[in-house]
Specification:
Chains A, B: One of its GO terms (biological process) is tetrahydrobiopterin biosynthetic process. Chains A, B: InterPro entries: PCD_sf, Pterin_deHydtase. Two copies of one chain form a homodimer. Chain A is of the alpha+beta class. Chain A has one domain (7-97): 2-Layer Sandwich (Gyrase A, domain 2), CATH 3.30.1360.20. The first copy, chain A, contains three helices and four strands. In chain A, strands 1-2-4-3 form a four-stranded antiparallel β-sheet, with helices on one face. In chain A, a hairpin with a 2-residue loop joins strand 3 (60-64) and strand 4. Chain A binds chain B through residues 38-39, 42, 45-46, 49, 52-53, 58-65, and chain B through 38-39, 42, 45-46, 49, 52-53, 58-65. Strand 3 of chain A pairs antiparallel with strand 3 (60-64) of chain B, so a sheet runs across the interface.
Chain lengths: 101, 101
């Protein structure tokens, strides 16, 4: 079982994660990605979904046309773990390839 | 430009749309789909995304593991139009093929 990060570890991981921040009112991290259009937004989601499924660790996300709001937390651990940080990094890498930094 | 449905027309369209209801506080329709797992939920989203893109009419949707909450409205028309009803029907047909009625 993967361990919940301490507030300090969470903060230090977030400092290296462009665009991500703490979600207020809940132990989770969030980022809103804004793409050029729906094609790019859903392309991002499709690639991220494959990563999520492969690692059996899934996002909560909302898509409205060209935006994708993502919330990551590890339910079993009751907070943010290394698995969330890894998925956030993978999402940033995919977005970067679509020109979103 | 596609016309906003009257409350009566909306109600009568909804009566034929299994699982859909009016969204409270906003002129829109909603349905929450619950699939077997993330694979099926995202498979549903992928097929629905292709329909949405083809018709240039996109949903607002949120996915958490095996659930997909969908809200449909036509921004330009300030309410629900035939385009929303058509997309809702298409989504129901896709879900039905995945065993969700």
């Amino acid at each position: 079982m993967v361990e919940r990060l301490s507030p300090e570890a969470r903060k230090s991981a977030l400092a290296e994660l462009s665009g991500w921040s703490e979600l207020s009112g809940r132990e989770a991290i969030q980022r809103t990605f804004t793409f050029k259009d729906f094609n790019e937004a859903f392309g991002f989601m499709s690639r991220a979904a494959l990563v999520a499924e492969k690692n059996d660790h899934h996002p909560e996300w909302k898509n409205v046309y060209r935006t994708v709001e993502v919330v990551l937390a590890t339910h079993d651990a009751g907070g943010v773990t290394r698995r969330d940080i890894d998925l956030a990094k993978a999402m940033n890498a995919i977005a970067r390839q679509l020109g979103v930094t």
